[in-house]
């Protein structure tokens, strides 16, 4: 987990303070320590040193999160071998860690001399054949990050495929916080994994910014919406309008006016007013007030 530890501490310290003298030596030392765990024969960075297990060279999908420190260290030091290790690991993982539906195993064990795959397992998920939620999120974030850092379209393709698997999964709850494993037998009463949800959200936000060619625009529900698509927080609205970078189609109806009209029509016509009153309840004034907010 050295990438997690160093990027969240020293990486953020450099980003926030710009104090390279205090950060870079430790950052580079950590990156080189990670690089020491790379085996050219297997083409990947070893994850665990657990001699009591049957593995010879175990590699977990979490390792994708460690690659950024190698790429950043290569930029800092000019030592491109660090970036080459990150790329080789990403390519080998892409080849061996994923199933046909773009879900991934948690762990792949390699022969350290030949690089042959010895086993594919899911240690922290429900079963070897299941989709452990946090592992899928690591994969999504990792390949999104690798595309950002290298521009290799193969990584973008992989990130999009993983994203499609996750966001269209039939067992992803409506609130998008996944169950701890997508194949957990106790669904819908299974425990949720908020960490997996946060990792997915972060990756999806970045992915949407990296590849806008696949998005024709954003539909924004302002003021009133069925379901849970309403956006009515001013800070969020300002952020969307300022940073979307693409066409925004707004659905504008002021909820306060609609609520008042609904109450008035129920009082006059009963609990279930005829559908013919719909344009009077959601009237021009409701549209105007919400549209004016969008223009503002």
Care to describe what's here?
51% of the residues lie in helices and 9% in strands. With 296 residues, it is mainly alpha-helical. Helix 1 (2-17) runs antiparallel to helix 2 (20-35), helix 2 (20-35) crosses helix 3 (67-77) and helix 5 runs parallel beside helix 7. The chain is elongated, with a radius of gyration of 24 Å. The two termini are 46 Å apart. The relative contact order is 0.08. The model has no long low-confidence stretch (mean pLDDT 92).
| SSE run | HHEEEHHEEHHHEEHEHHH
SS elements, strand count: 8
Q: Mean of residue pLDDT?
A: 92
Task: Assess the beta-strand content as a share of residues.
Answer: 5-15%
Strand arrangement across the biggest beta sheet: 3-4-5
Q: What is the molecular shape? A: elongated
- Number of continuous helical runs: 11
Instruction: Give the N-terminus to C-terminus distance in angstroms.
Output: 46 Å
Structural class, from helix and strand content?
mainly alpha
The parts where pLDDT drops under 50 for at least 5 residues are none
Largest sheet: 3 strands, antiparallel
Q: What share of the residues lie within helices?
A: 40-55%
Radius of gyration: 24 Å
